[in-house]
Amino acid sequence: MDVNDLTNHIPGTGDFIKIDQNKCNGCGMCVRICIVNLWGIKNNIAFIRDDYKEKCLECGSCGQVCEPGAIDFNYPAGGTGVIFERG
Question: 28-41: string of b/e by CB count within 10 Å (b at 16+)?
Fold first, then answer.
């Protein structure tokens, strides 16, 4: 079963994940930890998919494993974001 079959997203979350490319050391921990494969590395710098707001499960793991503190993860405002429909 696809994880997207279990979730629905309410629009209006805004940008809740930001990356400071000047702090990123390209370690790839964000790529390894993200269960929905939202992260990638290009030219030794992490990037997040443009559609992350629709796909992210809001676990916050990417921000927790980022040792240089390049990822700023903040949960979306209440009433927006992911809703688990079945689980």
Answer: ebbbeebeeebbee
Listing DSSP states for 1-30 in one string gives: --GGGSEEEES-----EEE-TTT-----HH
User: Which H/E stretch holds residue 42?
Assistant: strand 39-42
Per-residue pLDDT reduced to its tens digit, 26-77: 999 999 999 999 999 999 999 999 989 888 888 999 999 999 999 999 988 7
Fold designation for 14-76: Alpha-Beta Plaits (3.30.70)
Q: Give the span between the Cα atoms of 87 and 29, in whole angstroms.
A: 27
